[in-house]
Design brief:
Elements (H helix, E strand, L loop, with lengths): L5 H7 L5 H21 L7 H9 L6 H34 L11 H16 L4 H24 L7 H23 L3 H11 L8 H28 L3 H6 L4 H23 L5 H13 L3 H26 L7 H20 L5
Length: 344
């Protein structure tokens, strides 16, 4: 340790307030998991909760309800983590403080491919959804970045958001055009489109796991390079970073995470935006720590939104995509007003 340079020692130091933020977040995550298992159209008591978790021989209705909610909770945590990390990567790659899959049109591109698959190829399984959604997300990302890069100044934050908004509007119109003449497609698609984790099952989780692992590994390994990119391309090149490669690989990780989550849970917005901004505000700009903390925060936000949707919509449920949009839209307006569209 004594042989390390001053800059190397600084790199090994934890960000300010890291442990003060990490410990409460872990505790909050535990509370969210218990709330997700206990609350819904039927509220389960502590004893029944413990029976459902630790006593498989107990076969009461309440214990069975808890066991059914375990799958939903795990699926919710995975989707929230994926969307949180995807938002962190997108903001870093584009150097745009309000970049998010829903804002840049990536979710809508995934939606278009899924609805076309339902309408023209009669797809219905999670495996088919996920590949179509990822393909749509990748092509939409390339298109939005290409449009946003045109003209003087390259891909500025403002141009990327405008390109994403315009692309999202066009693709949404195409989604409607495909659905309207096909009532059966509309019935199947409308439940997916609103964004919900209630359809999650063990097959969905098994399908999601490889994409989640690959996306998280990409995020972790590109974090140091993205930190260098935040200093500017010239500085990053001087530090030996291949800027084009880092951007491409990080963007691929973001699209994998976003596309997989969107395919299985529907286009849930604002999770990446909220999670990353909260963590950046609390611990600073270091992507090596923002990425895992955004995963944790995204899981918390989505789980809380799911619980709120179940409570507010009782005896039915309010889909989580509606809850996140209701909460996220005002926060997006505040962030936009304060950020004034400047780059990260």
């Amino acid at each position: 340790m004594n042989n390390l340079s001053v800059s190397e020692k600084k790199q090994l130091q934890l960000p300010r307030n890291f442990l003060r933020v990490l410990i409460p977040l872990i505790l909050l995550l535990g509370v969210c998991i218990l709330a997700s298992l206990a609350f819904g159209s039927r509220i389960v008591g502590w004893a029944d909760l413990m029976d459902g978790l630790f006593h498989p021989e107990v076969l009461t209705h309440e214990a069975n309800v808890v066991r059914q909610r375990i799958v939903r909770t795990i699926f919710c945590l995975m989707c929230g983590a994926a969307l949180g990390v995807s938002g962190a990567l997108m903001q870093s790659v584009t150097r745009n403080p309000i970049a998010d899959p829903s804002i840049l049109g990536v979710n809508t591109g995934a939606s278009l491919f899924v609805v076309c698959g339902i309408a023209f190829f009669n797809i219905s399984s999670a495996n088919e959804y996920i590949w179509l959604a990822i393909a749509g997300a990748i092509l939409t990302s390339i298109f939005v970045f290409g449009i946003g890069s045109m003209g003087s100044g390259g891909a500025t934050p403002l141009k990327l958001v405008l390109a994403g908004a315009a692309t999202s509007a066009i693709l949404s119109s195409l989604v409607v055009a495909v659905m309207i003449p096909r009532s059966n497609v509309m019935d199947q698609f409308r439940f997916w489109q609103v964004g919900s984790v209630g359809s999650g099952n063990w097959d969905s989780i098994a399908t999601f796991v490889p994409f989640l692992i690959i996306g998280l590994l990409i995020a972790v390994f590109t974090g140091p390079g993205l930190n260098a990119l935040a200093l500017g391309d010239e500085v990053a090149k001087g530090l030996g970073v291949r800027t084009g490669t880092i951007r491409l690989v990080a963007a691929l990780g973001a699209v994998l995470l976003c596309g997989a989550a969107t395919a299985l849970a529907g286009p849930i917005g604002f999770i990446g935006l909220l999670a990353t901004h909260v963590i950046r505000l609390l611990i600073g700009p270091d992507l090596r720590y923002i990425i895992p903390m955004s995963a944790l925060t995204g899981a918390i936000i989505l789980t809380v939104s799911d619980v709120l949707g179940r409570l507010l919509g009782s005896p039915g449920e309010l889909e989580v995509g509606i809850v996140t949009a209701f909460v996220g839209a005002p926060i997006l307006i505040l962030i936009t007003m304060k950020a004034k569209m400047r780059a990260l």
